[in-house]
Amino acid sequence: MRQRLLGCTGLAVSAVALGAGHVGAPDQAEADVERLVHRALDLGVNLLDTARSYGASEERLGRALAGRRDAVVISTKVGYGVPGHADWTGPAVTLGVEDALRRLRTDRLDVVHLHSCPLETLRRGEVVAALEATVRAGKARVAAYSGEGDALEWAVRSGAFGSVQLSVNVCDQRALEGPVREARLRGLGVLAKRPLANAPWRFRERPTGHYAEVYWDRLRALRLDPRGLPLPELFARFAAHAPGVASILLGTASPAHLEEAVRAVEAGPLPPELTAALRDAFLRAGEGWIGQV
Ligand SMILES: NC(=O)c1ccc[n+]([C@@H]2O[C@H](COP(=O)([O-])OP(=O)(O)OC[C@H]3O[C@@H](n4cnc5c(N)ncnc54)[C@H](OP(=O)(O)O)[C@@H]3O)[C@@H](O)[C@H]2O)c1
């Protein structure tokens, strides 16, 4: 699988990463997670994205990576969920990194995001300074930000982060001309979350209350003509080859779906006229559509 530089971080990441949100769910069997992780590595997927809030994801990745730690780039997210400490404080970040190291069974994390940290908190400086200190201490290689909107824009311009994570998909293109372009100019890495827009085509009826609900509405409004391409392929190629995007974080618990995405992205960018039609569809239908956290 082709690798790209993650901005100026010095890290090289596969164009498709394993978004390890689903693997943390209680209904996932540990043996299946291990099989998925090994299949990912064998496919050349070298970036794994997890977070404190993804259930047992960090622990399971830590166990699955025994003996293969050096083959992967580990991305995680902190800022909350440390017993005895308020969320979005310096200690929540410092100890959050220590906890993640322990759960992931490693002595260093590669990319550590402040996970949807609000703008006022970023501006206050305490959590940013705590994250920078973990980098200086060699516990994290790259300080990163994950989120949308004003906070994302601030993060890109702040000079404090080497990489950002945000939603990029056919139904969520607003950031491409803003933060993604700016990040690229400034040498920041860009990781695209929710690249399939949560596969809204899976739902015949509006999935009220589901994470995919907003994207289901948008997909209908876009009235796409996929020109014969399967939607998973269309979405994966669009996001992975959007200028500035280093890697798409494909959220899956299925080796077959991961494999499908790798194959799709390896086929290269969509034909230029199809990419242009998808961009036009968004500009036409997407007034007021903001990046989805
Ligand atoms: N930083 C943040 O706040 C944040 C927020 C959201 C996501 N993320 C990151 O981005 C990753 C991906 O996000 P996401 O999972 O929300 O969205 P996504 O990748 O757009 O969609 C994932 C969904 O699509 C399904 N899927 C995958 N391939 C498919 C295929 N070929 N056909 C049909 N369905 C398919 C998956 O189910 P199967 O398991 O059946 O494949 C899963 O339910 C997360 O794991 C996480 O790493 C970060």
Automatic annotation (TrEMBL):
- Cite the InterPro entries for this sequence: AKR2_Oxidoreductase, NAD(P)_OxRdtase_dom_sf, NADP_OxRdtase_dom
Which stretches make up the NADP-dependent oxidoreductase domain? 16-279
**Coiled-coil intervals in this record?**
none
Pfam families per the record? Answer: Aldo_ket_red
The membrane-spanning stretches of this chain are none
Q: PANTHER family attached here?
A: D-THREO-ALDOSE 1-DEHYDROGENASE, NADP-DEPENDENT OXIDOREDUCTASE DOMAIN-CONTAINING PROTEIN
- Put simply, this protein is called Aldo/keto reductase
Q: Give the species.
A: Anaeromyxobacter oryzae
